[in-house]
């Protein structure tokens, strides 16, 4: 599906979430979430396990089906049944905890297959774009390696390069460093910092408080399926107003 199939509102926030609800059986995981991500903004989402952070992220590109609410992405409500879901998704890059690379494909092929099938680019163009993005994440020269021969951190950087190769308007990161050995975390965060400095719109579910403080424009603390507190990362981390935020940060800072 080409990106021309939807009409984007350039004045709208990159992502707006309105009264979003999601349950799994009798367990209400999201209880009426409202917030937005402006263009060029880095929003970090923190909170304890089970607070609904990852479900929120997955609802934004409808990997999970919300029960109710609205999620306009660049002005186009991704939850509206009339919306061309593939066209909206083509504007959203997603990076998961697990790298989700195709193990039977080389690094280069992992980066070119979706470009060919979704963006309908020529093979030559796909390879040029893939190589440029591998260079961006510090993995030039690893094009012909298979994922099993890379470290976890390298695999995650390949996953980021794969997402970037689709030329997304924004990136969603779901705890991108939580599956990595501690010494590999920094390389992935450095790539994300570079993206932020280049103006990429990003929503990051993370446990990396240093990254949230240094790179985030806004910090959202979730607990129990609601947004408890949000604001400037320095303010929220340095002087949390809500008791639940204080209790959580006392354990992780």
Written description of the protein model:
The protein is α/β, with parallel strands linked by helices. The chain contains 9 helices and 11 strands. The protein has helices at residues 53-60, 85-89, 107-119, 123-136, 152-164, 182-197, 209-215, 233-238, 243-252; strands at residues 15-24, 27-37, 42-46, 68-70, 72-73, 76-77, 92-95, 170-174, 201-205, 218-223, 226-231. The strands form 3 sheets. It has a 6-stranded mixed sheet, with helices on both faces. Helix 6 links the parallel strand 8 and strand 9. Helix 3 (107-119) packs across helix 4, helix 3 (107-119) runs parallel beside helix 5 and helix 4 crosses helix 5 (152-164). The radius of gyration is 18 Å and the shape is globular. The mean pLDDT is 94.
Strand content: 15-25%
Helix content: 25-40%
Structural class based on helices, strands and sheet pairing: alpha/beta
Please give the number of β-strands.
11
Order of helices and strands: EEEHEEEHEHHHEHEHEEHH
Offer a concise description of the structure.
With 253 residues, the chain is an alpha/beta fold. The protein has nine helices and eleven strands. The model has no long low-confidence stretch (mean pLDDT 94).
List the helices and strands and how they pair.
Blueprint (H helix, E strand, L loop, with lengths): L14 E10 L2 E11 L4 E5 L6 H8 L7 E3 L1 E2 L2 E2 L7 H5 L2 E4 L11 H13 L3 H14 L15 H13 L5 E5 L7 H16 L3 E5 L3 H7 L2 E6 L2 E6 L1 H6 L4 H10 L1
Parallel strand pairs: 3-9, 3-10, 7-8, 8-9
Antiparallel strand pairs: 1-2, 1-4, 5-6, 10-11
């Amino acid at each position: 599906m080409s990106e021309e199939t939807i009409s984007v509102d350039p004045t709208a926030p990159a992502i707006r979430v309105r009264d979003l609800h999601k349950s799994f059986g009798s367990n209400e995981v999201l209880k009426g979430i409202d917030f937005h991500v402006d263009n060029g903004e880095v929003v970090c989402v923190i909170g304890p396990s089970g607070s609904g952070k990852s479900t929120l992220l997955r609802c934004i590109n409808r990997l999970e089906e919300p029960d109710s609410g609205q999620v306009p992405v660049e002005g186009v409500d991704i939850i509206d049944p009339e919306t061309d879901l593939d066209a909206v998704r083509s504007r959203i890059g997603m990076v998961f905890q697990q790298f989700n690379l195709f193990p039977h494909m080389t690094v280069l092929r992992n980066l070119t297959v979706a470009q060919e099938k979704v963006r309908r680019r020529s093979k030559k163009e796909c390879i040029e774009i893939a190589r440029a993005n591998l260079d961006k994440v510090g993995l030039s020269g690893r094009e012909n390696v298979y994922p099993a021969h890379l470290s976890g951190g390298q695999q995650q950087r390949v996953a980021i390069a794969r997402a970037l190769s689709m030329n997304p308007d924004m990136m969603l990161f779901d705890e991108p460093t939580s599956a990595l050995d501690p010494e590999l975390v920094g390389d992935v965060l450095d790539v994300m910092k570079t993206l932020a400095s280049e103006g990429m719109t990003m929503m990051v579910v993370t446990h990396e408080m240093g990254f949230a403080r240094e790179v985030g424009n806004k910090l959202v603390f979730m607990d129990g399926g609601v947004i408890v507190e949000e604001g400037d990362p320095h303010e929220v981390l340095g002087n949390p107003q809500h008791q639940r935020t204080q209790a959580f940060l006392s354990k992780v800072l």
